[in-house]
Here is the input.
Amino acid sequence: MNFASDNIVGASAPVLHAILEANAGTMAAYGNDEISQCVKARFNEIFEREVSVFFVTTGTAANALALSSAVPPYGLCVCHREAHVIDDECGAPEFFMHGAKLAGLPGVGAKLKADDVDVYLKSLPKAVKQMPPKALSISQVSEGGLVYGLDELAALGAVCREHGLSFHMDGARFVNALVSLGCTPADMTWRRGVDILSFGATKNGGLMAEAIVVFKPALAEALDYRSKRAGQIISKGRLIAAQFEGYFADGHWLDNARHANRMATLLSDGLLQLPGVRLAWPTQANEVFPIIPKTLDQALKAAGILYHPWTDLSLPEAEHVADHEVLIRLVTSWASREEDVRRLLEVASSGISRHAAE
Amino acid sequence: MNFASDNIVGASAPVLHAILEANAGTMAAYGNDEISQCVKARFNEIFEREVSVFFVTTGTAANALALSSAVPPYGLCVCHREAHVIDDECGAPEFFMHGAKLAGLPGVGAKLKADDVDVYLKSLPKAVKQMPPKALSISQVSEGGLVYGLDELAALGAVCREHGLSFHMDGARFVNALVSLGCTPADMTWRRGVDILSFGATKNGGLMAEAIVVFKPALAEALDYRSKRAGQIISKGRLIAAQFEGYFADGHWLDNARHANRMATLLSDGLLQLPGVRLAWPTQANEVFPIIPKTLDQALKAAGILYHPWTDLSLPEAEHVADHEVLIRLVTSWASREEDVRRLLEVASSGISRHAAE
Amino acid sequence: MNFASDNIVGASAPVLHAILEANAGTMAAYGNDEISQCVKARFNEIFEREVSVFFVTTGTAANALALSSAVPPYGLCVCHREAHVIDDECGAPEFFMHGAKLAGLPGVGAKLKADDVDVYLKSLPKAVKQMPPKALSISQVSEGGLVYGLDELAALGAVCREHGLSFHMDGARFVNALVSLGCTPADMTWRRGVDILSFGATKNGGLMAEAIVVFKPALAEALDYRSKRAGQIISKGRLIAAQFEGYFADGHWLDNARHANRMATLLSDGLLQLPGVRLAWPTQANEVFPIIPKTLDQALKAAGILYHPWTDLSLPEAEHVADHEVLIRLVTSWASREEDVRRLLEVASSGISRHAAE
Amino acid sequence: MNFASDNIVGASAPVLHAILEANAGTMAAYGNDEISQCVKARFNEIFEREVSVFFVTTGTAANALALSSAVPPYGLCVCHREAHVIDDECGAPEFFMHGAKLAGLPGVGAKLKADDVDVYLKSLPKAVKQMPPKALSISQVSEGGLVYGLDELAALGAVCREHGLSFHMDGARFVNALVSLGCTPADMTWRRGVDILSFGATKNGGLMAEAIVVFKPALAEALDYRSKRAGQIISKGRLIAAQFEGYFADGHWLDNARHANRMATLLSDGLLQLPGVRLAWPTQANEVFPIIPKTLDQALKAAGILYHPWTDLSLPEAEHVADHEVLIRLVTSWASREEDVRRLLEVASSGISRHAAE
Here is the structure.
């Protein structure tokens, strides 16, 4: 059983089917085909306004390209200090932004508070030695599995406007947040001040399909050139667009995310029943961050269950992981099977019991 | 009928089938899966030695990453002045190489001569104002549809060694050249001095599948980091590796290229029968570059046949395109149908006749 | 005797004197001092309008920073193919522009014609693979020692406006051109459409003192950050500003350039008296480009006279350098002594005679 | 009275004199002159071995170029989180390193401990998402005015060797540290494992004169190109080299630093006599970091004394600045006058008394 991430499974059936459908016949290359145009129009509907859409193949490319459109080489981009963009992309944003800097701020569960961002921005010296802040990047869902509420997003959007920053959302798990909040894509983005979005589909059923969705037109102006120049304009473009066709059809994308979140809740609730287990912070989407006894950790591993240990850097101030404990991350996906979740809980339960008995 | 390029069709059936096969179950992400490992081993067999392989999704990314491993930011990369890397990638090499420069030399049919490269390199001032040459990049097949012979490759390889350059081959149409020469991949690459190869599969049947194949180990050292940083490490890595599985199985890749080349020969031979039609240079792979009367050009277009006009910059010195003529490019692929080629020839033939009659 | 360049002498006395004057006492660092402010105001007077001024220490830095403000990383900058920016700066513009590309066009005497630029710009494909042109850079004086006339500048300015390019002037020998034309700085720059200027002082008497002068305010917005980031904001800023104080005082800068140009004219006229000597193109500022017999070349060298051979790439079409000839460049400066010029002419004259006698 | 920094004064008399001496006559440009060669040989003597030397005009350029030779674009450079390179250079290192990242660690008085660096390096994941560490950069004197002892340097050098990092020293105040330790330049650098040094002269008497001194030959290989490309190769190169001539002659550089340090000690000792004044950390070179009552701060400012407030981020753990206090930085230089220091102490003393009396 693999709870290591939501990218350890393949593509979902509707996505594959759409690829097969789109594969026949000849069409213009490099995204100048009808399917690409059609899918872009679909994004307008989904976001209830005209948006600019750029397809890429990885979340890292989506984030780095998005930030490069908002931050000049001498600029600063504020993010959480555990953000994917600062921690997990081997410096892709710095590469695409040509040496611009990411400034990582702290925050519980890898979420940023608007006030903290505001205080930080106000603390920066007004001097030429200080790279000027040009963008804020947040992850919705956060790297701690938390979901920004609509008010929190609005507050961050207001800080961005006040300080003249562009507001970027890394939506690698966009739909997991969306169904968690039960709001519309528009409500969770541009209506709260988001200017540019990395819209992830790969983790939620795509084969390799991510989109940059731009709400502030100025940020879209050069993205085609930047994307081409980054080797991100796929020659058989219809085969990336088609993935979104299958993804959006019949609410498939929403169903996938709802399933993943439900599996996480099931997992989270089950774990909380066990003595000695607590959550680092609440389960709000498709990731669970329990602090568990090391003995349980061993039992889970012995049962062949795959997952990652996690950093305790973003625990609430009073909280800490004891020597006999470990903080882990369990991720569910559209493809997670309820029986696997229940099996994990059984393993955990008997692991705890056995240890208590010893 | 579309002869605009070889990327206007989808993926071939064996490639799609391999994706579907690989899609089931869970596997480690980011290329740490068994399929990726297996396919990399397959590359060793194909090239008859140990090679390093890096999967990417576009030819532009393959070229730009490959060059970035060979050319430092202050270096120079020599190529043909019509090379894809200098002309068609919106500066991707310059982006990935951090501002290194491409120097474009002339040559008939977009091929470089070893002597010309040698003379150019010797002409460069030995001064700090001169960016030092660090790599040679050629396209096999060339942008003019010509194939470098094994001796020509060896001569270029020798020039590279003499001047301390790395030797890069843009193999967007690698297999078309391979079957044209009837040699082995090893013979066409490292045995002639090639250090690093962009091994294209997309144009010849892949969905989005390109590989960087490295023969000079030093060039492979940091490519994983550079690729990650460029957003080119696909999370569901097995689904790019799988494409190569399908591609290599049962000689599928060779069959595809042989078919494409045969279609081009058919087309080329047919066109040469027509009065007023001549070739800019010979047809050697899957592209035909005829110089045709403008009246014929109009007839072809009127029949809905798609293709691109082409530059006459690399014609042989004595040759030129007259006012009433146009140089065009016709590209065939693994999916070109013989009936479409014959239909084009018919249209052309009757176009010529009609015009003669008028 | 050294005619190799105009940077082989030290600083002029008024410049040195101004440094010594400014050296005493304490002042704010990094250009926040009164002298810097004062000199910047002086630039406003000189250019008859408000300009933004940024001090740097080399012409390469001035050019590269100026271009980086006008050309985004995915953009194209048009220049002459022998321009200093493309040929003599080890890729500084590409570094500062983060991989943007320089496109070098031909032109007699290293000058560009407005029509040629226009034709080139119109020939560029409107496609994402094509880096969009964003700036034109010319050298006034050109690398061939020619001076653009006011009409020629206006025509180039018009082409820039039509195509939406910023217009950069590399004024390493700005004042030599200025006194050659006998016009005002305003007439030779913004009144003809120039948007940003590398204003050189080092070659004409400075110690290390160059300024970027910006006429189009948008280009000045981030130059302070870019300059700091390039290590070009001098900590003891007053000591670079002071050089301009001494330079501008009492018409010293104009006198220096007039002297240099006069020496070049003297040299040029004298050489033209000699049999077998002709000019590659006219002498218009402080550089002379004679085509001389190789025997004369040997005689000059034997007399210990220093200068550089020059490329014949920008000769007029009908012209060429014969096997027994060589094209050389002789540069005069504010410090050239008339006696040295006359001595060179004597050496040349007797060299020619001796050879004729042999 | 200005204690804001050591760059608020001009150049020292011997430095100016050397410039005037070197100014006469013609010499080869771009550092190919005898003075430059001579001064480079002098560096060999000073460092008791062959070193490579590159002259630049700012400390920012020296640091950024040095780091660019040690850290590839995908690499990581470890430094203190208050290091000049990370905090005060508007991202120059990131620009010159093409997007490589600086990782800032904590440490009292802006000094790094070898153990902390070691622990940090060991904590980095061995994964492609993690930029690999390639260099350590320290400031000697630290940004907190502290001097690394020889053992501390050796320990850091050992950590670098163990982890395969290049070891960079930002020596903007190199000589202040040198005379504080009373050791030789060799002892304080390569004998302790330092690979590359930013050797500052500007703050200690130069006009604009910094040098990069390279001990690990591989790091010097491309620095000429990088420097040219950064616009840092001065055309009248002898006039930057000459500054070092004057600087090194007759122990002038050492005298200057000794004076500056002595003035700081005088200042520091005097301040410590005052009630309510303590040092954030010891005074070891030419900077004093007292924590003073806000009332004293006001008195000093009222007397027209210039200096900067300072961050309390690097105070020892137990220490803190109270609400009624402020942490300030006072910098002395080769040009500081003892009478000014005594006058400051008098103002401070009477400020304290007056406040006590109120």
